[in-house]
Amino acid sequence: MTQTESIDHPQQAARRALVEHRSRQLLDAAATLMEREGSEAVSMQALATEAGVSVGLIYRYFGSKEDVLYAVIVDVLDALATALPAALEDAPQDPVRRLAATFTAYCTVIDSHRHSTLLTYRESKSLDAERRERIKDLELETAQPLMGSLRDGVSEGLLVTDDAELVAYDLILMAHAWALKSWYFTKTRDLESYISSQLALALRGIVAPKHRSRYADLLH
């Protein structure tokens, strides 16, 4: 490695860190502002004010307001695409435990992206058709870890369901409900108790009766 390369390497790392920081700053500000005001009412100037940056800086990252909205929504899905496989990697081989770990990871991502989750429901219709289809494809991909654990549980006789896909989407809706109804749920419970309660509710309906003692900690 030359002396120039040894100097450029930390400089490049610093630039990447700055870009990631700025992107995170803008996405968080956009999610908060659009959820509060609605995307139609948000101008690039309003976003700049919310983020505490110049309008010119925003245009270095995003070409239009639709670009911002799309990035905010995809940010949630990207976070799920990273968190769910990581949860599976750290989980035991038991399919029911893996299902629990994946659902926990899903809810944790939703908790850290509440505003973005709400925007997905409220504002994605304002995106063009191609971007809406891309979001649907990404959502389907995020369901796969849940479906995989469910199907493994059924094949091993641990879970009883004729429709793993439906159960997976029920769990996804439970996770999304933490953001959609956070104004209510956060009055009486924290994220951990919400996850354990919803997981117990779901598993009671699908864990095979002869295996319920094995998962008593999850069911109660």
From TrEMBL:
PROSITE patterns per record: HTH_TETR_1, HTH_TETR_2
Looking at the keywords, is Transcription present?
yes
Q: Name one GO molecular function term.
A: DNA-binding transcription factor activity
Which InterPro entries does the record match to this protein? DNA-bd_HTH_TetR-type_CS, Homeodomain-like_sf, HTH-type_TetR-like_transc_reg, HTH_TetR, KstR2_TetR_C, Tet_transcr_reg_TetR-rel_C_sf
Gene3D superfamilies found in the cross-reference section: Homeodomain-like (1.10.10.60), Tetracycline Repressor, domain 2 (1.10.357.10)
What domain of life? Bacteria
What is the protein name given in its UniProt record? AcrR family transcriptional regulator
